[in-house]
Amino acid sequence: MFYHGYDNYMRYAFPEDELRPLSCGPLTRDRENPAHIEVNDVLGNYSLTLIDSLSTLAILASSTPTKRGRNSLQDFQNGVALLVEYYGDGTDGPGGQGKRARGFDLDSKVQIFETVIRGVGGLLSAHLFAVGELPIRGFDAKVQEKRGKKGLHWKNGFVYDGQLLRLALDLGERLLPAFHTPTGLPYPRVNLRHGIPFYANSPYNNDAEHGQCQRNPGGNVEITETCSAGAGSLVLEFSTLSRLTGDGRFENAAKEAFWAVWNRRSSVGLIGAGIDSETGQWVTPYTGIGAGVDSFFEYAFKSHVLLSGLPYDPDYADFHSPEAFLSAWEEAHASIKRHVYRGSIYQHPHYIQVDLYTGAMRAFWMDSLSAYYQGLLTLAGELEEAIETHLLYTALWTRYSALPERWSTSSGTIESGLRWWGGRPEFIESTWYLYRATQDPWYLHVGEMALRDIKRRCWTKCGWAGLQDVRTGEQTDRMESFFLGETAKYLFLLFDATHPLNALDGPFVFTTEGHPLIIPKRLRQPQSAKGSTTTSTNEQKDHHVPGTCHLPPRPVPLSFSATAARKDIFHAASLARLHLMPTLETLDSPLVEFSANHPSISLSDIRSPSNYTYYPWTLPPELIPANATSSKMAVRTTFDLSFPNLPNNILTVGSLQRVNDGVLVNSMSGLRLGMIREPDLHTGDHGISMDQRFRIYAISNVALGRDEKVFMSRDLVDNLNPIDPFFTRTRDTQTVDLAVDAAPDPPSTSPISETGLIDMIDSAIVNSSTANLEFLDDFEIQLDPSSTGDPSYLSSILQSIQALLSSPSDSPLFSPPTPPPIKRHHLSGTLPTGIGAAPLPDTPDAELTFSAEAPLAWRTVYVHHNELCDERLLLEVVREYQIVAIPRGGCSFSAKLRNIPAFAPHGSSLQLVVIVSFPEQEVPHYSSRKEDEEETIEAPSMRQKRRQIKSQEIGNGNGNGKVNPLVQPLLDEVQFTPSGLPRPNPLPLVMVGGGDETLALLRRARGVGVRRRWYFQSQGVRIGNLIVL
């Protein structure tokens, strides 16, 4: 397959960029139409297909030479020599001038992303193979000096001394001007000869002496929109280039671009597809895992692999360290799993398009580019998710004998007429990753199916064509360079189990263009020195939990394949509508006339019987159990809850108001709530599944994100029937809001310095009558150094000066202070559980805001100075104070209540016990070792810091609609008095967070009350994201 395309490219297209397989000619830049970016962005007029094919030739070189006389190692070396012949050796001398250009000094405006991944990446990968850093079986990369030339002396007479690396450096330097932007995001395009004169706002062009100016000011304005994948997927190639050359500009520029994208992620952790490189603003509100964002996630994880063990400045660990890239991947994957991923209740797991800011569903289509994601998941250890979602792409390939560019899971048809397949490698790439991880023969059969379909449908006499329509087999007259650079490469590696790359134990990665890269060992420091020079102590603690690879699924007894034996295999077939597979009128193929002198072509390749079986698609029928069955498909429970139109109250635009975290409903008239029943998942590290809950996923045709909430006021729902079985109002018995009226913190009473005193006097003089200032000409202040810290001493000086400056009509210099305004604070709290729990006092619910006409129920508050574990509370306290606040810890909750004396209930006596929890008591520890727990408390890792920040974010505020990080206090015994008798009047208790800040708030409290929470149920199941304010 590879050589059929490569030989025809060299015969009909070289030294141009790509091959036209139908017309047997070259495909070049469209000079007449510069706006034809589908061609011009990629084709830079520098023999692109040859550069993209060199790493594939190097990989093929590890195989035994064929009987037809092909020696891939010689072909690789000849390809390198030919490239140097046309573009020079990368030096400044005469050898730097090639037949076509000196390096890449070409008048071609190309896309940064495509040029980096194909051009720079292809050159670097070929260089690493040439010098032996990447393995070629039987090749000894030994530097020798012969006839005055030092380097690798190849059999073709060529002496390799780093020409490809120097050419990669030349190409990289020509791309650097595009990184001169206000945001750090590179411009999408650059001219290899002239730079970026078409971006007038670039700081690169603001320099009057050295800047570039627009050569055609009256021309069309160049767009500045790039994409997250294009801007953030440069780290692998540029980091390798910097490490090999010692020029850090490339690595720094690529990393800055990566973090510039990541730091602009939305509040739900998603990044968008389109972003403006000058403003840093997202251009489109949709996102997913495919086109526009795909390789960003790939490079987040692979950068962690490639950079492992490399030195970096620990002061900039968040910018350079491999752990920082790993953390970005983990957070990105968690957000994708939360918002973009749809589970088995939607027939079969898959991914959709969602709103960038809320995660709400926006479109149902998936594209062929997104098929890379299963390979990335496999590499990152997320094996189950990779296996289950890969099944859907396998079903789609089975149905269409290729992957359409875009396909809708909703309609089961090709989306928006995007029905082509240009030879993309992503599906085959993921198949290779999964086979390497599982060794499941299923994936060999998947690869065989793809190989036969490509040979049957894409073969032409002059190469391999893409498909313009996957349904009809209509071909396109273009062989993309990635077909030889990736598609053929991954197919070869899939079937060559003993290839050195399949057994290489080292931090190497495949770029998004399929070029393997590795940082040489000589640039990595010894393991023993790593902790002292690469990472700080805190950073080393960040990887206290080493990553582990998941084991492949266990084989099912008497089965051939664990994947084929999965119970959900028919679910993927159902979602792909495999029964609607098109029936072709003819199975003839142009391969028939070519099979005589190509023994690798068989009848199977022409008729491809594997595409006309239903279960399990790619396995021969004799390997399928006769009684094979599939599990019952999960059915999601959804329904719409509609409210009647009320007279003179119709649903208008103002009835729904977008607020933080969701939508505020101002009118119930004509409202329609779309609800789905699903497990309530705890979103922590362990993904604990709670009870089933309803979630409102749409409100009057407005789609909501998974974490968005619907807010309603109590006044709005008071008129509804509280016992309606479809909308039942229920009091929350677990949580409550504690309302506290308090003035702000008093101002600091720190001593006034001499300088501060002079400033205060100057202010007083400025505001005084000028008639009294003549005496100040000789006025001096002499301060007693021993008394400058005494506020009364300073106050007396100020009063004396005020008396001198004042006149009968003057106002006093220091007016009496205005009492600070009282503000109502709401603290989220939890109610106790267990046999010792007592109900709250029957008091009116506190209002949301402070009002002097509606004071809170309790006015007196006592804050105890310790945990109340080893002493008894004074009887006077419980008689005179209605609220007693006690810090959490030291002993059980029941023990604290035991130390409160018995008393006669009265309106002015103790009404409520408030336990105040501290932040360190609220962070869950999952470590099984004590030393790990202590380490976590002393120096939390970056991931733990993010979790703590997230907990603080959801725990602050007024408590309405927030997830409470506190647990319910357990009172595991009935309440006792200090004398050991059962307490006749059990004490109500509530626990709040906030630690010292809450204790300080309660000390200055003017009033305390409670506001009970309500939630709604439908058919006995709680509506999880409906919040009653």
From TrEMBL:
Pfam families: Glyco_hydro_47. Its cofactor is Ca(2+). Ca(2+) binds at T512. GO terms for molecular function: calcium ion binding; mannosyl-oligosaccharide 1,2-alpha-mannosidase activity. Keywords: Calcium, Endoplasmic reticulum, Glycoprotein, Glycosidase, Hydrolase, Metal-binding. GO terms for cellular component: endoplasmic reticulum quality control compartment; membrane. The active site is at E114, D294, E405, E426. This is alpha-1,2-Mannosidase. It comes from Lepidopterella palustris CBS 459.81.
